[in-house]
Amino acid sequence: MEKIRVGVVGTGFIGGKHIEAIARIPQAELVAITDSSAARIQEVAERYQVHGYQSVEEMLDRESLDVVHNCTPTSMHYFVNEKVLLAHKHLYCEKPLALDAAEGEKLQQLAERQGVANGVNLNYRMNALVQHMHDLVQDGQAGRSFLVTGSYIQDWMMMQDDYDWRLDPKVGGVSRAIADIGSHLFDTCQFVLGKRITAVNAHLTVVHPIRCQYEKAQTFSKEKGRLLREAPVVNEDAASIMARFEDGTEGLFQVSQISAGHKNDMRLRFDFERCSYEWRQEESNLLYIGHRDEPNQILQREAAALSPRARRFTGLPAGHPEGWNDALYQAVNAFYQSILTDTWRQETPYATIAEGAWIMKIIDACLASGKQGRWIDVATGGAV
Questions:
Q1: Among residues 363, 344, 360, which one has the least CA distance to residue 111?
Q2: Residue 55: which CATH number?
Q3: C-alpha distances in angstroms, 190 versus 50, 74, 129, 244, 301?
Q4: Which CATH number does the domain housing residue 275 bear?
Q5: Is this prediction's pTM over 0.90?
Q6: What is the C-alpha to C-alpha distance for residues 162 and 180, in angstroms, rounded to an integer?
Q7: Domain carrying residue 20
Q8: d(CA 198, CA 75)
Q9: Mind listing the pLDDT tens digit for each residue in 31-42?
């Protein structure tokens, strides 16, 4: 194909970031968008000079597309994903893949039957230094895994009058903090280790059982407008999670959207028998390498310092920081390149629907553990 013809479903904050990533890829062409807002359809279609449609069905019927990006709220993921897969289009979906593990498993089976390329936007693994850590671990340079520690903390939901669509379980799902940001934490750690999380023990916290919903409430927005209602909260603001990986490695994780001063603070530490690795999303160009009997190291991201495979995920010289937008671009670009080279059936650096479906099982296991107060097996959903 000369160009990958792309359609985007949902053009809000994250949809806009997908569109920006698509624009950076010479082999890709955005040709169509759809959204729940008629005003946004018109505004985005005019801005990018593409066709705007009232529904995903109309877009699929009238456009010759190769790839569709699903950037809708979580409650719409299964519906849109199913439509795209049944239309035999390659699919790139925002995380989490679906509302729950049952939906995720159905999508995994459908994707396998349809035989199309598929990806889930768990984009933190696409940072060059995360890819580098993965390669070092898989090559055996770090030795046996001892312990994994991670946290992902934010403050945008710490006030009682902070409100977002994710608070409505019918739209955002029964899980909020774990599904929204814990999904990234789980995926990145699994990717670096090359091992799945197989059991969890989670404690979930709601600090505001009642929140104030305002008419202009939007993600990360401070604008309020008039008070609409006092809304009961059923999904978690924060969680503390113990985890066990398939090789027996123990993990300890914390997720929070109520921690003052932390904007998008994801931190990882991997302890191995020969060294430790520490990486922080807000300082994504630095990798801290700890040693017992020699000086510690700070590795600055640059192509020459990375493993040969990880070098393709960095595009700027050292000292020219690459960040969140770049990781998203690298994820989308890797997905498109696997389509162009027909290698998407092989192991991919980006997360697939199968991996996204396993993340859904982890999320459901955390919810079950929080209710039952015990360890839950991820595969079966039963007590360990």
A1: 344
A2: 3.40.50.720
A3: 38, 22, 15, 11, 22
A4: 3.30.360.10
A5: yes
A6: 16
A7: 4-124+351-355
A8: 26
A9: 999 999 999 999
